[in-house]
């Protein structure tokens, strides 16, 4: 990104600032160019074949990267299975029976290990895969600097406390993003990740039947969407795992319709719709609903920020051989 911006820019000072703003990350766009030249195509093909078989996996991979980065930084902890040394994060509340796509990362890692053994971290693979997933789903592309290393442990408690819940008030969700070094704009634009993928009825059913304790639904839920959601999620426990699209209009396409839906009271999760309940976040939602180009551009920028959270570089951590196990 900085290369193309700078080669076309007539303003050298701007280029300088741009490069400086990313140089603190200790990552490098060419990190594996010599040691694993086929990395990009192996990852791209692995994501492509997974999505070709099951469209939803684009969403699942993107969410895995988010859940990796928000818990102890982007160091692949969500990929670890339980071990004798620690309990993994896969059974933490936000992940249990919900986080998915692990097999896609395993299968890409296997191919990468064959081509370049003990060279590429699992968390870098997940970072590239989530960028590719967004791109292959019709979204923006952004170059990803590399060189993250894998962590040596997982933390189930941190997964339970640091990941946002769909039932939390906006202030609490905002605080969680701020605590990771992100800001309100990052939070709004990254919530646009909900333009693809699905949610289980248990994550939004409280809005459908007895939101106010007097038997009424959430007044901030569009009437016709309410009707169709009640069809998918009847008011009984056995509908809890049924699925509804997070973006009811174009669920398989990475576009800005998530934001258009919020403007029309058609957000699925309460945590989505509350973005319209605050002047600052609502103004951003309105902008992204009207200017798809701005959403694409800002999404790439905020993804780069998110994929820099708490990274391990240099001699820290390790290059896992198997993403599920510490070496
Ligand atoms: C702002 C706070 C957020 C909350 C409260 C939240 C909550 C949720 C919930 C409850 C689900 C449904 C899970 C299930 O039913 O199994 C979900 C799915 C998803 N989330 Fe988020 N999320 C948030 C932010 C993000 C961010 C920042 C991203 C990525 C940039 C993201 C990407 C996704 C995707 C792609 C799915 C669909 C996954 C699939 O279909 O497998 N979310 N989220
Ligand atoms: C394709 O996806 C289905 C589920 O949608 C899964 O059962 C099957 O194993 C997948 N096939 C391949 C080759 O990944
Ligand atoms: C796990 O995370 C929790 C919550 O952030 C923290 O209090 C605890 O110290 C962490 N445990 C380890 C072993 O790092
Ligand atoms: C939102 O509502 C407006 C006005 O009712 C309508 O023109 C538009 O098509 C709606 N957009 C979506 C995404 O439903
Ligand atoms: C939000 O905007 C409304 C109407 O534009 C205004 O009346 C209200 O004071 C604003 N609230 C805050 C907290 O700025």
From TrEMBL:
Its cofactor is heme b; Ca(2+). It comes from the Eukaryota. InterPro entries: Haem_peroxidase, Haem_peroxidase_sf, Peroxidase_pln, Peroxidases_AS, Peroxidases_heam-ligand_BS, Secretory_peroxidase. Residues 26-327 form the Plant heme peroxidase family profile domain. The record marks 63 as: Transition state stabilizer. Ca(2+) 1 binds at residues 68, 71, 73, 77, 89. The keyword Transcription regulation does not apply. Ca(2+) 2 binds at residues 195, 247, 250, 255. Binds 1 heme b (iron(II)-protoporphyrin IX) group per subunit. Keywords: Calcium, Disulfide bond, Glycoprotein, Heme, Hydrogen peroxide, Iron, Metal-binding, Oxidoreductase, Peroxidase, Secreted, Signal. It catalyses: 2 a phenolic donor + H2O2 = 2 a phenolic radical donor + 2 H2O. One of its GO terms (molecular function) is metal ion binding. SUPFAM superfamilies: Heme-dependent peroxidases (SSF48113). Belongs to the peroxidase family. Ascorbate peroxidase subfamily. Belongs to the peroxidase family. Classical plant (class III) peroxidase subfamily. This is Peroxidase. It comes from Penstemon smallii. The lineage of its organism: Eukaryota, Viridiplantae, Streptophyta, Embryophyta, Tracheophyta.
């Amino acid at each position: 990104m900085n290369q193309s911006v700078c080669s076309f820019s007539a303003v050298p000072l701007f280029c300088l600032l741009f490069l400086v703003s990313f140089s603190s990350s200790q990552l490098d766009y060419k990190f594996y160019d010599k040691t694993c030249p086929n990395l990009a195509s192996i990852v791209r093909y692995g994501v492509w074949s997974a999505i070709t078989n099951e469209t939803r996996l684009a969403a699942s991979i993107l969410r895995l990267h988010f859940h990796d980065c928000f818990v102890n930084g982007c160091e692949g902890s969500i990929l670890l299975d339980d071990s004798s040394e620690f309990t993994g994060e896969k059974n933490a509340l936000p992940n249990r029976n919900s986080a998915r796509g692990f097999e896609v990362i395993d299968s890409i890692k296997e191919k990468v290990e064959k081509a370049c053994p003990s060279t590429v971290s699992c968390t870098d693979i997940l970072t590239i895969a989530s960028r590719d997933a967004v791109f292959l789903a019709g979204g923006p592309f952004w170059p990803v600097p590399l060189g993250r290393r894998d962590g040596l442990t997982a933390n189930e408690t941190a997964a339970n406390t640091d990941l946002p819940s769909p039932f939390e008030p906006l202030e609490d969700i905002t605080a969680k993003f701020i605590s990771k070094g992100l800001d309100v704009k990052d939070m709004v634009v990254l919530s646009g990740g909900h333009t693809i993928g699905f949610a289980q009825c248990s994550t939004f059913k409280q809005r459908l039947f007895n939101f106010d304790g007097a038997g009424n639904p959430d007044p901030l839920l569009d009437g016709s969407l309410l009707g169709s959601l009640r069809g998918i999620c009847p008011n009984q426990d056995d509908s809890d795992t049924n699925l509804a699209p997070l973006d009811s209009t174009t669920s398989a396409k990475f576009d800005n319709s998530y934001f258009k839906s919020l403007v029309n009271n058609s957000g699925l999760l309460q945590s989505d719709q509350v973005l319209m309940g605050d002047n600052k976040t609502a103004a951003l939602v309105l902008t992204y609903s009207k200017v798809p180009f701005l959403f694409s551009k800002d999404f790439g920028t905020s993804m780069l920020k998110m994929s820099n959270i708490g990274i391990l570089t240099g001699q820290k951590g390790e290059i896992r051989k198997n993403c599920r196990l510490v070496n």
